[in-house]
Amino acid sequence: xxxxxxxxxxxxxxxxxxxxxxxxxxxxxxxxxxxxxxxxxxxxxxxxxxxxxxxxxxxxxxxxxxxxxxxxxxxxxxxxxxxxxxxxxxxxxxxxxxxxxxxxxxxxxxxxxxxxxxxxxxxxxxxxxxxxxxxxxxxxxxxxxxxxxxxxxxxxxxxxxxxxxxxxxxxxxxxxxxxxxxxxxxxxxxxxxxxxxxxxxxxxxxxxxxxxxxxxxxxxxxxxxxxxxxxxxxxxxxxxxxxxxxxxxxxxxxxxxxxxxxxxxxxxxxxxxxxxxxxxxxxxxxxxxxxxxxxxxxxxxxxxxxxxxxxxxxxxxxxxxxxxxxxxxxxxxxxxxxxxxxxxxxxx
Length: 348
Known about the structure:
mainly alpha; Arc Repressor Mutant, subunit A; DNA Binding (I), subunit A; two-stranded antiparallel ribbon
């Protein structure tokens, strides 16, 4: 309904200058909606900081709470956090910038403090003693790639270290202070560490569990002559020999029968491999391992998604993700998916 000019003047007077209830006013004027929808805004002495217009009260409640507003640009004077006008948005943007800058300065101070605490030779020696061989290999690869390249990438580092992903390694290395999260992004090495300090001993320390994992991965088959247990006695051989810097890492180990490992079956090896010598076949296996590493890397997101689907969630927790990063360094993605599928069934 529309009010006449006289009705509008009378409504405004009763609404703003008397204590007559809004219910009574609504009945008196036959209004279809609440009175404040029809009452004219009450001008105040304040002006809008955004456009300079006079601020008003839009209802009795707004007046009692001193909530002024601008009918021209929509500015709300009660709180910048309730207002989305250009003026208030600029104030909020400046507050956010100052807050972010303060946080950044705090992070830089924490970064410098952490560097000072962890940069002594004694601390570095202690921290290095807490690393597994694989973690040392990753750290050494990180230091070497950063030192050699003007544009180091995680893929280059992971390829050098022969790992699928950097995440499970950088978590521990940053916790120990051997690497540091730089406040503006990225990860930098502890300034007290050089590649030469990260010693990876090439001793023969293959555990029974690691030996079994190698046999299982290679289907209990000699990778040089194709024979299987129990026809032959299986051993673990190094693709890159220990004498040439090879390590006891999973990707440098291969299942071999005793005769092939000792080099006694050169003719059989050539027959099985199509004319390759043992050294040439080792290189072939290394190339296949590198391809398998790339394949596992490409399937990492798929394993993560499958884990989330089996758990009935859209995202997986950092705790679960860490397990996957560790698993995928050694196991085929299909095996991991099978284990994920079986796990909830067993717990049901």
